[in-house]
Design brief:
The chain is an alpha/beta fold. Helices cover about 30% and strands about 15% of the residues. It contains 8 helices and 9 strands. Strand 6, helix 5 (about 145-155) and strand 7 (about 155-160) form a beta-alpha-beta unit. Helix 4 (about 110-125) runs parallel beside helix 5 (about 145-155) and helix 5 (about 145-155) crosses helix 6. It is globular, with a radius of gyration of 17 Å. It binds zinc ion (2 copies). One zinc ion binds near residues 10, 14, 16, 41 and 199.
Amino acid sequence: MRLLADLHTHTLASGHAYSTATELAVAARRAGLGLIAITDHGPACPGAPEQWYFWNLKVVPSIIDGVRILKGCEANPAETENGIDLPDSILENLDFVAVGFHPETGFDQRDRARNTDALLRVIANPYVDMITHPGNDDEFPLDLDAVVAEAAARGVILELNDHSFAPTSCRASSNHREREFAEAAMAAGVPVAVNSDAHFASQVGRFEAALAIAEQIGLAEERIVNRTPASVLEHLLGRRERPRLDHGGVWDSGQSGVS
Ligand SMILES: [Zn+2]
Ligand SMILES: [Zn+2]
């Protein structure tokens, strides 16, 4: 199985990642990918950018070095008006909206019921496309059945996160749960994405560990949203309009001295 898109990458704007958007795009092209989503952490994460960063993502080209760029976020559940640490007025203009739990954003109490309630509200938000690393059970326990049922009802992607299976990951101790989420998502007809969660350019398109899990559990390739750039765009445009999807132009970084 070969996937040609990566829906979870971070630039140095996240505060604990170390590559630029252009470096991610160049690495994606070298890895043979045709599309990446740039999903920097939402404002609740320590060191993450403010709302203005996400609002102005429209200036980033939609194609860099031949790679389609989705300008997105990895926001956090939050006790705000819409239950997310970015308002709907920002989310509606992003090409791709991912949300997931992270340390030091207000949910460190390991309260399964509270986490589940917060995430069900997130999944019900029509701008939310994907829930990242749902199997992080040691840090952010969830009611798996409730989350999978709501994701199925709303057509929200549940992620199978490659980095969760890295021995150095903070989520490694509960990665069996990431597999359980993928199995339950498969059974319930929930769309799945297999992503790198790259925090450095060389990690873009690295899915080997998560793909091994996908193959072990018998997850069919056609159930994975990020098979190709076209399969990603078809899924996203089938859910809602993306007003800025083609905004920002084309930039051939090769002609600009970056390679
Ligand atoms: Zn991060
Ligand atoms: Zn994350």
